[in-house]
Amino acid sequence: MKNTQHDEFMRMAIALSEQNVAQGLGGPFGAVIVKDGEVIAGSGNKVVPNNDPTAHAEVSAIRLACQKLNTFSLEGCVIYTSCEPCPMCLAAIYWARIDKIYYANTKVDAAAIGFDDHFIYEELDRPVAERKLPVVQLLRNEALGAFKAWTDSTSKTHY
Ligand SMILES: [Zn+2]
């Protein structure tokens, strides 16, 4: 793919980020998912209109692309995002098996306008017991039943 095509797809992601602000929909973020040079899905950030804290542009675009392609794997796809992905989106991109990330604004640019995800990276670096978010284990023996059933199942879909 020529660099100009990468620029074209990134401009679509940027346009989604601009539309989001212009239409008062939410944060200035947009993402586009492309497969074999064809746009599969694109989305702006939808946290506010959807009342969904996970509806970042990248996660929203992944959901749309998976619906469109009727699959849980976006292997063979690349994502163009108007801003460097946050830890949640980065993890979602890994889970979706997207091949490559192209980004425009950096996380430092995002932090400068009030969207700071640095604290999450800091949290991940700390031992669980030292994190701000309390994490408590309960009922492991009861929960293991589903794991055993999964292990024994002959009808499961591996993903
Ligand atoms: Zn994100």
What's the helix and strand layout?
Elements: H1 3-22, E1 30-35, E2 38-44, H2 47-50, H3 57-69, E3 77-83, H4 87-96, E4 100-105, H5 107-112, H6 118-125, H7 140-152
Parallel strand pairs: 3-4
Antiparallel strand pairs: 1-2, 1-3
Bound molecules: zinc ion.
Shape: globular
Can you summarize the main beta sheet?
4 strands, mixed
Task: Give me the Rg, rounded.
Answer: 18 Å
Order of helices and strands: HEEHHEHEHHH
SS summary, helix count: 7
Q: Stretches where pLDDT falls below 50 for ≥5 residues?
A: none
Portion in helices: 40-55%
Write out the strand line-up for the largest beta sheet, numbering strands in chain order. 2-1-3-4
Mean pLDDT: 95
- Termini Cα gap: 29 Å
Beta percentage is: 15-25%
How would you characterize the overall build of this protein?
The protein has 159 residues and is of the alpha+beta class. The protein has 7 helices and 4 strands; from the N terminus they run αββααβαβααα. It starts with a helix and ends in a 7-residue tail after the last helix. It is globular and about 55 Å long. The longest helix is centred in the N-terminal third of the chain and has 20 residues, at 3-22. The protein has helices at 3-22, 47-50, 57-69, 87-96, 107-112, 118-125, 140-152, and strands spanning 30-35, 38-44, 77-83, 100-105. 47% of the residues lie in helices and 16% in strands. Bound molecules: zinc ion. Zinc ion is lined by residues 56, 58, 85-86, 88-89.
